[in-house]
Amino acid sequence: MQNKVNFTVITIVKGREEHLHNLLRGVRRSSLQPDEIRIVAIDDLPDVSAFQDLPIEVSQISSKGANLPIAEARNIGAQNAKFNQLIFLDVDCIPHPDFFADMITQGLAHKTLIMGNPHYLESSIPKNFELNDLEKLSAAHPARPAIKELAEASDYMLFWSLAFYIPKQLFKVLEGFDAKFTGYGAEDTDMAMKISQLKSIYPLLLSPAKVYHQQHPVHSPPVHQVEAIVINARIFYDKWERWVMENWLEEFRNLGLIQWEADGSTIEILKKADKNLIEQSYKPQAAYM
Prior knowledge:
Number of strands: 14
Strand content: 15-25%
Radius of gyration: 19 Å
Order of helices and strands: EHEEHEEHEHEEEHHEEHHEEHE
């Protein structure tokens, strides 16, 4: 870029402090430095004292003991951002050194929603990692298309909120993330549906600009999140007349946890997952989650 353009990086954190530190180490190594890193902490404040050289601003919201307000936290990050060019990074993502430069260049040229290219780390990384470590230990998600150059998405469900650029003005046009979605899932698919309605003006673009997604423990299927998933799926269906997270809903139905009819007539929780089922679903390391 010929002229320096100010931009804000936004990330949401709940725990995962070491992942946040790796993200910030990646930011340090970036060829284009952000002018603001806005961290929105849910409940506990992270320790970022080792990164005083970076332009970090931390705000805090409370989950109030309920499902995590991820959509609300992202909206707060965007509302409080000082600059008009926004890049959202999931706390599990480490940016490639050229990620910001590529995304800002593409964003300024197209002024629309642009999703980055997540590669998933298949094992843990050294504390003092180098780019070669991330390249050797990562792979593209098997369910996503190979992206070699900037292109419009043929399927808008390919928008995942792991790593994306959006101008603040477009974020306002879309009215941000729908804060009715709390806890697990659906808020980014809802955003994809909103942008799909404007695609003649604001197409969803997929960029080859790369981020590296760190492993973390998961439950597969996420039986500990049945309530949040059912609530969010119902909200999504009422809004768009189609289901979301159908794979999880089908698995919950097969496990006898929910009653669910794909025609939209019924979805309800029959029982909560017991301790044994929760333990069986736990995966201490997961590459593609």
